[in-house]
Amino acid sequence: MSKKAKDVEHYFSENPKSKARLGLIRTYFRGRPFEFLTSSGIFSMNRIDLGTRLLVECMALPDKGCALDIGCGYGPIGIAAATFRPELHVVMVEVNHRAAWLARQNIENNQVSNVEVRRGNLYEPVQNMVFNCVLSNPPVSAGMETVKAIICEAPKHMTKKSILQMVVRSKVAGKRLCTFFEEAFGNVDVLERESGYRVLLSRKE
């Protein structure tokens, strides 16, 4: 099995087969300190990847209501959102058992109380909820159908005037994903771009 195939198996399967080797990342978002427990078998265990950092630094967040971080990994996006907006309730969803466990540990490590983790695939754990904001650094390596599902199923879980924000590599299906945004919402904007990444944003009218 190739290294890329192994990575996909680890990151996007429910139960990674690799032995867990824990790590720790200390970083700053918007001038605030954060600390994240990480592990082998999880995406970007050694550093905050550039796409996640770009999304966290520029994401537009409502002051109140509910936000969803879909495919949260060990939790940097959702935990940062909850930290920046103490009156916003954040739900993080993750299919990978190991990543979901890490996200729960990181909620405690960063002492945030307005965020929770639900384990499951895509929108299944939140099927009866609606959100004012949906955030995602999507698992592109898991396949375009998975990413398309995150985009196209989002409107069913969003309130009016809510926003979907997703960070993508500009050269990896960037134009194709813009088409999915247009089909699902009828609009798409580039919120920010940097280092080969762009944050796409659509509003539900």
The whole-angstrom Rg is 16 Å
Structural class: alpha/beta
Distance between the termini: 45 Å
Q: Report the β-strand fraction as a percent range.
A: 25-35%
Helix content: 25-40%
Q: List SSEs in N-to-C order.
A: HEEHEHEHEEHEHEE
Helix tally? 6
Oligomeric assembly: single chain
- Molecular shape: globular
Can you give the mean pLDDT? Answer: 90
Give the uncertain stretches in residue-range form: 1-10
Please give the order of strands in the largest beta sheet. Answer: 5-4-3-6-7-9-8
The largest pleated sheet is described as:
7 strands, mixed
Beta strand count: 9
Task: Tell me the layout of helices and strands.
Blueprint: H1 3-12, E1 22-29, E2 32-39, H2 50-58, E3 65-70, H3 76-84, E4 88-94, H4 97-109, E5 115-119, E6 131-136, H5 144-152, E7 158-169, H6 174-185, E8 189-194, E9 197-203
Parallel strand pairs: 3-4, 3-6, 4-5, 6-7
Antiparallel strand pairs: 1-2, 7-9, 8-9
Description:
It is globular, with a radius of gyration of 16 Å. The protein starts with a helix and ends with a strand. The chain has six helices and nine strands. The protein is α/β, with parallel strands linked by helices and 205 residues long. The N terminus is likely disordered.
